[in-house]
From TrEMBL:
Acidic residues bias (residue ranges): 39-49
Region (Disordered): 18-67
Subcellular localization, as worded in the UniProt entry: Secreted
GO cellular component, one term: extracellular region
Any one GO biological process: carbohydrate metabolic process
Record-annotated NodB homology domain positions: 213-336
GO MF annotation terms: hydrolase activity, acting on carbon-nitrogen (but not peptide) bonds
Classification via Gene3D superfamilies: Glycoside hydrolase/deacetylase (3.20.20.370)
Record keywords, A-Z: Signal
CDD domains per the UniProt record, alphabetical: CE4_DAC_u1_6s (cd10970)
The species this protein was found in: Natrialba magadii (strain ATCC 43099 / DSM 3394 / CCM 3739 / CIP 104546 / IAM 13178 / JCM 8861 / NBRC 102185 / NCIMB 2190 / MS3) (Natronobacterium magadii)
Broad class of the protein's primary localization: secreted
Protein name stated in the entry: Polysaccharide deacetylase
Length: 430
């Protein structure tokens, strides 16, 4: 079988022209700890570009793209009084001889903040920030604020698992305060939110910037290999001409070793591919890769590679989705060795993928969450992946329909492009 797994430009009619991380109990992250935030609808247009083709030149990255601070000199950074501690850790690093260690304190309200005031303003309109991260807690939320002279800022965030070595993560837009002048950013602030009065340690290294696309990009995905992706989603998606991707656990396809009645059949997956859908794989639902033993992790990650090849679904690349966005160090290493892209996380409107094996994804967004994520994607020229699992209830189908309609409207207006995983891998990895 030699099926196409994505729509070609001539046949696809690809249209061209978010919710905050963590819980509601998090205290406001403004400089004065009680300032007000603007909504996306009130933001200025700093950073928006007006390229009619929406193309990106890989050999023409913004000047600021790349490593910016490797934390070799912590004198340029300082921690907020009574909001945690900052020190050098020479026992580990991503780049150089040390990294920065952020530790919460009983008085820090579950957070640590460090900041650096720049000698000269920087222009961040065409780039997005990122860090290499590690923590000793189960998971972490880290925020990066890019502030102008008036303390107005654009904030990027990421949520990531604990127990891994220092690894780059992809940050997405989650908050805006005021009307930030991104051409004149003078303060960089990093905030680690542990939650409540929790204590913990956070390692950060390689503060860097990645390019942003010249127009927002969206990926549409369906995870879990459920039959309703064929019976309910296929016809609606096909009517729009928007490319989609299905991430399936091969062993749970009906007729497989651990088949379930509500899963796709092998033939239905083939029809999705014939309709132009990209076919990727996901470890079997319920098998959390951070908890399984080594043999099971290897089987869950590596065995589907052979299935993709046998079915002819790997002709444009191999793509993987982590179940529940959870994994261990061993699982992530196997994914890096065997796949071109992988999807995990909880962010929207990220920049180019600094870590292509942890591309951000919003799973089962409500219409309100999808609307906010799309506005950020358009406004800040970001990349957002929407993933849907079950469409078995009327409410689930309605929420999917509303999100798809919003994507379709933005794409038809020329405000964003809907791309495939292959296009993401080829054009938007830094």
């Amino acid at each position: 079988m030699d099926r196409r797994t994505y729509l070609s430009t001539s046949a696809a009619t690809i249209f061209a022209g978010c919710t905050e991380l963590s819980g509601a109990d998090e205290p406001d992250a403004d400089d004065d700890r009680n300032g007000s935030e603007s909504t996306d609808g009130d933001e200025s247009t700093d950073g928006a570009t007006d390229d009619p083709n929406g193309s990106d030149q890989q050999d023409d990255y913004p000047e600021l793209a790349g490593s910016f601070d490797n934390f070799e000199d912590l004198d340029e950074w300082w921690e907020w009084q009574d909001i945690g501690f900052l020190e050098a850790d020479r026992s580990r690093s991503y780049d150089g001889t040390q990294c920065a260690l952020l530790t919460s304190s009983p008085e820090s309200e579950g957070q640590v903040r460090i900041r650096r005031r720049l000698d000269e303003p920087i222009d961040v309109r065409d780039v997005a920030p990122g860090l290499a991260l590690a923590t000793d807690t189960d998971q972490g939320v880290v925020r990066i604020q890019l502030q102008d002279e008036d303390a107005h800022y654009l904030e990027y965030s990421t949520q990531f698992p604990g127990g891994t070595s220092l690894t780059h993560d992809n940050f997405g837009v989650t908050r805006v305060r005021g009307d930030p002048d991104l051409s004149e950013v003078v303060v960089l602030q990093v905030i680690r939110w542990f939650g409540g009065d929790a204590e913990g340690r956070q390692w950060v290294d390689d503060f860097h910037f990645v390019p942003k696309p010249e127009r927002g990009k969206v990926l549409l995905q369906f995870h879990g290999g459920y039959e309703e992706h064929y019976t309910d989603a296929l016809s609606r998606v096909s009517s729009t001409g928007i490319p989609a991707a299905a991430f399936v656990p091969p062993e749970r396809l009906r007729g497989g070793e651990s088949a379930e009645d509500d899963r796709l059949t092998r033939e239905q997956v083939g029809e999705l591919a014939d309709e132009g859908w990209t076919i990727g794989v996901q470890a079997a639902a319920g098998r959390h890769l951070e908890a399984a033993d080594a043999d099971r992790v290897e089987a869950a990650v590596v065995d589907p590679v052979e299935w993709l090849a046998d079915e002819g679904y790997d002709d444009v690349g191999r793509f993987f989705a982590y179940p529940y966005s959870q994994y261990s160090e061993a699982a992530s290493e196997l994914v890096r060795e065997n796949y071109d892209l992988a999807f995990a996380g909880h962010s929207s409107a990220q920049g180019f993928a600094r870590n292509p094996h942890r591309c951000s994804v919003l799973t089962n967004p409500t219409p309100e969450e999808a609307t906010a994520a799309l506005e950020r994607t358009v406004r800040w020229n970001g990349i957002t992946t929407f993933a849907f699992h079950r469409l078995s209830s009327q409410n689930e189908r309605t929420e999917f329909e509303e999100t798809l309609s919003r994507i379709e409207a933005h794409a038809a207006a020329g405000e964003l492009d809907v791309i495939t995983p292959a296009e993401m891998a080829d054009e938007y990895v830094y």
